[in-house]
Amino acid sequence: MGRRRRTEVHKTICWDCENAVEPEICPWCGSGSPVPGWVATPTFLKSNLVAKHKESYFVTYCPLFKRDATSGGRRYWKEGDPL
Asked: Whose CB has fewer CB within 10 Å in the chain, the N or C terminal residue?
C-alpha cells in the first residue's frame, strides 16, 4: 500500500483580514461584490451540506487588506506559489 501524499492548502488572505467582518468597508463581505483592484482567481467552495458548489474567489492581493492582529501573523501563501 502506497503513502498518500499530503497536499498543501492555500487559503485566501481574506481569512486573515480585519476588514472581512466590516461590510461597510469590504464590498466582498458586505454584498459579495469583488473588490476593485484585488488580485483574485475564481474558484468554487465545496460543501457537504448542499449538492452544488458555491462560486468564490481565492484572493492573493487586496487594497483593503488589513492583517487581523488575532490571526497570529499567519501567512498562508507565498509570492510565486501556484494558484
From this structure: N
Average confidence (pLDDT) over 24-50: 87
Q: How many domains are contained in the chain?
A: 1
In our burial notation (b when 16+ CB lie closer than 10 A, e otherwise), range 42-57 reads eeeeeeeeeeeeeebb
Which amino acid makes up residue 40?
A
Residue 41 lies in a domain: yes
Of 30, 28, 31, nearest to 42 by C-alpha is: 28
CA distance 63 to 53: 27
- Tell me if 4 is assigned to some domain: no
Contacts of residue 7, defined as CB under 8 A and 6 or more positions apart, other chains included, come to: none
CA distance 9 to 76: 8
Query: What is the reported pTM?
Result: 0.65
Residue 23: give the domain boundaries. 13-64
The Cα 55–Cα 64 span in angstroms is 21
